[in-house]
Amino acid sequence: PNPAGNQLTVAVSGQLTKMEVFNMLGQQVFSLEQGMGQSFSIDVSALKSGIYFLKAQTVDGKVATRKFLKK
Fold it and tell me: In a 10 Å sphere around its CB, with 0-12 CB exposed, 13-18 middle and 19+ buried, how is residue 20 labelled?
């Protein structure tokens, strides 16, 4: 997984409309719904160290889920 310190930057080929972060138990720990462009940074400094899943959705409905490691 991609390691993250205090910031996690997300870049996609489409226009981001929604991002969610889930912990290993499947609990949502972060959510944001707004026009974010093709690149957006999330402040993850409040998250505990561990593995998380980022779910990003674009305006055309495409959804991508990626795993990342919070240091």
Answer: middle
**Residue 48: DSSP 8-state:** P
- pTM for the whole structure: 0.85
Tokens of 53: 């899943």
Q: Any residues with CB less than 8 A from the CB of 49 and at least 6 apart, and which?
A: 70, 71
Q: For residues 30 and 22, what is the distance between their CA atoms, to the nearest angstrom?
A: 7
Structural contact between residues 12 and 37, judged by C-beta atoms closer than 8 angstroms: no
Task: Tell me the pLDDT tens digit for each residue of 2-30.
Answer: 678 888 888 878 888 889 999 999 999 99
* CA angle at 47 for the pair 2 and 39, rounded to the nearest 5°: 50
Amino acid identity of 60?
D
